[in-house]
Specification:
The protein is α/β, with parallel strands linked by helices. Helices cover about 45% and strands about 20% of the residues. It has eight helices and nine strands. The protein has helices spanning about 20-30, 60-65, 85-95, 105-115, 130-140, 145-160, 170-185, 190-200; strands at about 10, 35, 40, 55, 70-75, 80-85, 100, 120-125, 165-170. The strands form two sheets. A five-stranded parallel beta sheet has the order 2-7-1-8-9, sandwiched between helices. A four-stranded mixed beta sheet has the order 4-3-6-5. Strand 5 and strand 6 (about 80-85) form a beta hairpin. It binds adenosine-5'-diphosphate and guanosine-5'-monophosphate. Adenosine-5'-diphosphate binds near residues 13, 134 and 169.
């Protein structure tokens, strides 16, 4: 039977909600799942590794990639650019591997326009207070950047209305189970397995 193209899972949330933490576990729990590493012009934070957290590139290189049409989507966020490689994403999917991307709402909209069959999952923090606590604990932003991210969180949350699924990341373990369940359910959709049913019916 012909190999099915891998599914595309797009995960968005206000910064600090826990989407990176959740997506990393999916890549661990689903062998073969490809967790897309984005390109960014943002400098690395302490502890971040090139090729693991991001592909860190110069503004010039990023612009050349835009001009060459190398991004499936890209956006400018907090003064830096972030983008997903089209080639890597398509190669993994053509090999039958699912791909999970962790991107902002602007990027999610671009992917929705290109591929309405993709599965869009929005992650909500349990409360604004908890979001502030997580962002502060992460210690990756100064006070100004933290305030900026909290302000943007409300706008980003309003955008969550159009996603297929919404997960509240209160207890991490529960949220991980819910995300896993969503991924597993997509593999049982009629259009994914109807071929198996038809093949069985051909056997007398
Ligand atoms: P994002 O990718 O959405 O910006 P991260 O995955 O970096 O968010 O998570 C932000 C911080 O919150 C991290 O320090 C992470 O360990 C923590 N975190 C994630 N999920 C939970 C949770 N359910 N409960 C408590 N802390 C969490
Ligand atoms: P951070 O700087 O905290 O790692 O990420 C800032 C924001 O950029 C987050 O909302 C994150 O989801 C988003 N982001 C990361 N990679 C990409 C990408 O490739 N495309 C888009 N559109 N957003 C991204």
């Amino acid at each position: 039977m012909e190999k099915k193209k891998g599914l595309l899972f797009v995960v968005s949330a206000p910064s600090g909600t826990g989407k990176t933490t959740l997506c990393r576990t999916m890549a661990r729990d689903f062998p073969g799942m490809h967790y897309s590493i984005s390109y960014t012009t943002r400098p690395p934070r302490p502890g971040e590794k090139k090729g693991r957290d991001y592909h860190f590139v110069t503004a010039g290189d990023f612009q050349r990639m835009i001009d060459a049409g190398e991004f499936a989507e890209w956006a400018e966020i907090y003064g830096y650019r972030y983008g997903t490689s089209k080639t890597i994403l398509e190669k993994a999917r053509d090999e039958g591997r699912d791909v999970i991307v962790d991107i902002d709402g602007q990027g999610a909209r671009q992917l929705r326009d290109q591929d309405p069959q993709a599965i869009f999952i929005f992650i909500l923090p349990p409360s604004w207070e908890e979001l502030k606590r997580r962002l502060s604990l992460r210690k990756t932003e100064g006070a100004t950047a933290l305030g900026e991210r909290l302000k943007k969180a409300r706008l980003e949350t309003a955008d969550g209305r159009w996603y297929n699924y919404i997960i509240i990341n209160n207890e991490l373990d529960k949220a991980q189970k819910q995300l896993k369940a969503i991924i597993q359910a997509q593999h049982c959709r009629r259009e994914r397995v109807i071929g198996v049913l038809e093949t069985m019916l051909m056997v007398s």
